[in-house]
Each structure stands twice: as structure tokens, then as C-alpha cells.
UniProtKB/TrEMBL annotation:
One of its GO terms (molecular function) is adenylate cyclase activity. PANTHER family: DIADENYLATE CYCLASE (PTHR34185). The lineage of its organism: Bacteria, Pseudomonadati, Bacteroidota, Sphingobacteriia, Sphingobacteriales. One of its GO terms (biological process) is cAMP biosynthetic process. It is an enzyme of class 2 (transferase). Belongs to the adenylate cyclase family. DacA/CdaA subfamily. Signal peptide: none annotated. This is Diadenylate cyclase. NCBIfam families: diadenylate cyclase CdaA. The gene is dacA. The keyword Mitochondrion does not apply. The chain crosses the membrane at residues 12-31, 37-56, 63-83.
Length: 264
């Protein structure tokens, strides 16, 4: 009577709605990972390429259809190669979220939470105090906290140290006359593993112009791994905290301690 053909919706199930919602969530999550990077431009180029292929196929332009079809037939492999960093980052995010939930359940069954927090405070004190001191003297520094030590990744570009953390050791490494002050200090399980590490720079196009190599390296390493990073600016003495490719600027030593507690 109202002119609407309800037969179109007769085969629509609740699972179809859930299916559409889950696909939308995955697409949004992937877009949030590649937003502001060069990968967005590549994805637009791929979409245009596929659009042209559909047009020439509908117009029965056989030669162009064969050429474009040949590229599309190996498109999945090409996309894996082109978007390998984004795929790696996506899988790291998924694995990290599952790991964090598992650890929360584990520690909830374990005993005294206050004792655990106290131990963390003792372990973090020399790091926080070193950052406070370097911020006061405007000594540039980059500290990376990794959950595991990838020898091929970190040791190949830095000096292997494997030393216990101390405020004086961190300050001496980043002293302007130290041969190890350039590059990153990598900390694993509250031990200094390597210094003067060369890290990959972020290729994000949305980074502020005032970001130097330390900030770009901190963002780069947190984009491709589950590491976190702390930066002390040589120009301003400002402390920053990087995680998942995002940076918290102008962090106080007290806020830094809490952020590290939450992550470590």
C-alpha cells in the first residue's frame, strides 16, 4: 500500500547487521592506523586503479582489461609488500590488547598490588630523576622501552651495554661530549641493553614542523613495534612520551612516572 517492497529485506538477518558493523569497525581501525601517513595516498591510488579497471572492463576494452587485470591478479601480494608496516602495526595492536587483558587477569589473581607498585616506583626512580635532570640542563635524550630485546634490530645499530639502570649512567650516556649521546637508549626489563641506536623515522605527514629527529624516531619506533619512548628536547628541555605513534607533549616528571607505571 505504501509502495515499499519489503521483500528486499526478507532475507536480511541479525547476523548480517553484525557482519556489517564488524566490517565497519575493522575499516575504521585500519584507517586510524594509516591516517596521516603516505599509506593513505597509496591506498587512494590503488582505489583509482581498480576503478579504472572496472570502467574499461564494462566498456569491453579488451587490451586495457587484460593489462589492468594482470596487475590486479597479483594485487594482494603487492598490497602486502606495500603495506607491510601497516599490517605489522595492526597485528601488534591486536596482540598487545589481548596481552594486556591477559596480564590484568593474571595480576588480579596475584597478591599485593601496592607491593608491585612500590617495586615499580623503585625501578623507575633513576629513570625519572635522570629525565628531570636532563630536562633542567636541556640535554637531549631518547629512551626506548621494549618488551623484548631484538638483537638483530637494536644491537646492529648501537653499542651493546647490558647494564643495570642508574641515574648517573643515563646522564653520562646522553652528555653532549659522550660518543654515545646520539641515537636511542634501549631499556628491556629495567636493564640498559644498547645505546646510540639508530631508529626508523616516522613517515607521517601530520607531524608538527618543530619535531626534530628524536621525536620522529620515537614516533617511528612506536609505530612499528609495541615499544614506548621518552624524549627530552635539547632546545626546550621539554619531556615527551610516545606510544603507538602518538606523542604526549610537555609531560612533568610526575606524569612521566605514572605513564611508565601504566605501561610497564
Amino acid at each position: 500500500m505504501d509502495g515499499i517492497d519489503y521483500s528486499l529485506f526478507s532475507g536480511f538477518r541479525l547476523l548480517d547487521v553484525i557482519d556489517i558493523i564488524l566490517v565497519a569497525i575493522i575499516i575504521y581501525y585500519i584507517y586510524s592506523l594509516i591516517r596521516g601517513t603516505i599509506a593513505v595516498n597509496i591506498l587512494i591510488g590503488v582505489a583509482l586503479f581498480y576503478g579504472v579497471y572496472i570502467v574499461v572492463k564494462q566498456m569491453h576494452m579488451r587490451l586495457l582489461t587484460e593489462i589492468f587485470g594482470g596487475f590486479i591478479s597479483v594485487g594482494s601480494i603487492a598490497l602486502i609488500v606495500v603495506f607491510q608496516q601497516e599490517i605489522r602495526r595492526f597485528l601488534l595492536h591486536v596482540g598487545k590488547n589481548i596481552s594486556m587483558k591477559r596480564k590484568k587477569v593474571f595480576w588480579s589473581f596475584l597478591g599485593n598490588k601496592k607491593a608491585i607498585q612500590k617495586d615499580l616506583t623503585e625501578d623507575l626512580r633513576p629513570i625519572v630523576e635522570a629525565c628531570r635532570s636532563m630536562s633542567r640542563t636541556r640535554t637531549g635524550a631518547l629512551l626506548v622501552f621494549s618488551k623484548y630485546f631484538d638483537e638483530e634490530y637494536y644491537q646492529s645499530s648501537g653499542e651493546y651495554i647490558d647494564a643495570h639502570i642508574s641515574k648517573r649512567l643515563i646522564e653520562s650516556i646522553f652528555h653532549k661530549n659522550s660518543p654515545l649521546h646520539d641515537g636511542a637508549l634501549v631499556i628491556v626489563d629495567f636493564k640498559i641493553m644498547t645505546a646510540s641506536c639508530v631508529l626508523p623515522l616516522s613517515d607521517s605527514e601530520d607531524l608538527p614542523l618543530q619535531f626534530g629527529l628524536r621525536h620522529r624516531a620515537a614516533i617511528g619506533v612506536t609505530e612499528i613495534s609495541d615499544a614506548i619512548a621518552v624524549i627530552v628536547s635539547e632546545e626546550t628541555g621539554e619531556i615527551s612520551f610516545a606510544k603507538d605513534g602518538n606523542v604526549n607533549m610537555n609531560v612533568s616528571p610526575e606524569e612521566l612516572e605514572q605513564l611508565l607505571k601504566d605501561e610497564l
